[in-house]
Amino acid sequence: MIQLIAIDLDGTLLKNDKTISKENKKVLRLAKEKGVKIVITTGRPLKAIHHILEELNLLDEGDYSITFNGGLVQKNATGEILDKITMSLSSIQEIYQALFSLHLPCDVVSDGEVYQLPSDRISLYEAATPFLNFHKVKPEELQETTIYNKIICATEPDYLDEKAAQLPSVIREKYEVIKSRDILLEFMPKGVTKAYGIAHLAEILGISQSEIMAIGDEENDLSMIEYAGVGVAMANAVPMIQSAADVITRSNEDDGVAHIISQYLEVE
């Protein structure tokens, strides 16, 4: 029996216009009423998904989210952090230098704050994530005591793919480097994945791996698709996700989340 459902946002729960369909909302409500944990599992910080959690009625004491691609496990109602892995300032500087040399933008995310470092290419992150606070800063202005969650590189898809292929091998060896959307390349501490966050939350809740369903569409969802007892790929998912999944559901435009949950939980 499925006890926890980990759900990605963009391209999965959200339609292309960033809304949640009535059918998806209804089925998630029914699943929660049956006692199933509905866990939004995203690269975004909690502040950037609060409106979604509110819309889905996921702000009760027993509701949780996995944020920063597994970097934080948090209680939705209070933001209390149950587990975290962060980045050092030296790591931020190392990745920034690699991106700067490739003429790629660099946004450093610290909870709800984003520090935009100098670049000769405009970042698309602010337009893509309007719920955060953005600050233009120089590298030397970053503080050692600040908690840094991840780095985002946001630019046009073709340019991003071309330049990402030129990243030094040492960067890919030392950090988790994954695409979360066609315009977003994310850098996190080694070992930080959505599967890591889900496994930690499941341990806290006493839920076994076989009782977990994970639903996603993009490269950063691969770890949780492979980890979950039931790994679900959207019909619009990238090929690597569809290949790794146990089952493929409908697309994000066709209530794919509601469709697969209804099948497994017999709610409708």
UniProtKB/TrEMBL annotation:
Q: Which GO terms describe its cellular component?
A: cytosol
Question: Which Pfam families does the record match to this protein?
Answer: Hydrolase_3 (PF08282)
| Source organism of this protein record | Pilibacter termitis
| Lineage of source species | Bacteria, Bacillati, Bacillota, Bacilli, Lactobacillales
* Signal peptide (from-to): none
InterPro entries found in the cross-reference section: Cof, HAD-like_sf, HAD-SF_hydro_IIB, HAD_sf
Identify the domain of life.
Bacteria
Name assigned to this protein: Haloacid dehalogenase-like hydrolase
Q: Which Gene3D superfamilies match?
A: 3.30.1240.10, HAD superfamily/HAD-like
Question: What GO terms are given for molecular function?
Answer: magnesium ion binding; phosphatase activity
